[in-house]
What does this fold into?
Amino acid sequence: MRLTATRINLTWGAKVEALPKIEDLNVEGKKVFVRVDMNVPVERGDGPEPVIMDATKIEQAAATLRELLDNGAAVVVGTHQGRPGSPDFISTEAHAKILSQILGMDVQWTDSVVGSAAREKIRGLRPGELLMLENLRFHSEENLEDEPEKLVRTHMARRLAPLFDAYVDDAFQAAHRSQPSLVAFPLLLPSAAGRLLVTMLRELAEIHKVQGRRVFALGGAKLEDKIRVLDASLRGGLVDLVITGGLLGVLMAEAAGNKIPSTAATYKRREILLPAAKRLLTEFQEKILYPVDFVVWDPDTDEISHAPVYNVPEGKVIVDVGPGTTGIYADALADSDIVVANGPFGMFEDPRFRKGTLDFVRSCSRAKKEVVFCGGHLSLAAKLAGLEEGRIYTAGGAILYALSGLPLPAVDVLLRR
It folds into this structure.
């Protein structure tokens, strides 16, 4: 079970006021470590290297970085990208190139996180210069989740903290994590919240004010997070209906008794997740919707077809929700007052398998209610569907955790400062 930082029981508005901010730091001539979230959607292009699909997160991070540079700081920026074993678990070298274009300056890059080469570059960094570290999760300790007091003893914290004068956290999108780069440094250095983090907490305060029937639409592949959000929000009476897609939809369909072939979808920790899903369906059956049909793909013939949830063929891969599902889900939005949607309903990285997600996004917009699209893939889906206005955020998990009454350890540890 994940351990988290001490919970700070304040309203979101009060948290914004209490947070230490950039103006509380004197950064002129100082070295500042900035944790951002540039974990962007990635697709496999025609070339040998993956292609970044949407650079919005990089653009958002640039504002805080530019302010620190303009105030005379030497800035080292760190981000994660993907998870070990996932297709988007790639180097940050491409991120550094895009950031260079956005800032109009040379962004240095190192292929290390805490190695001697990275530490030497940090020591030599001058005011007004910026260095990006390699993918933080390439360093195994960054994949740990634990209490801040324990994470300060990691090699990452002990080797990097002495090289800096201050720390700024602008990674709101990862605020629900309790990993070294997010919660250890505020206990070791003068620290502050970046501009994006502050802005998003203000947005959360506004979302919390919306009254009435609340619907969560949860897709994507981060099943442990989604099950935790489901459990907390339903037991806390914070959501009236949950619509599921992606791997979560497959998990719920299987938990309901439908036989899903092992070839159709795979997910780790099945022995834990499936019983948890069954318990939730037993207790909250009337509040959880799962797909009634899927789009399936034959990897041998490249044939794409539809299948009902109770008859998914062997040898086929589930790649999207079907039209019956999106129709039912659209009807379910009719009497909602706020919809919070996170995660794609299919293999969104492949343009052939985006229809279910895009159809649902469009149905949300037609409902003319308060709609929140959150997470990298859903914010991109909103753009592709032609939706430019409204509450469209690159943060996903952090927003869901906050709206489900779960803690945001990276915010709480800053408040403890």
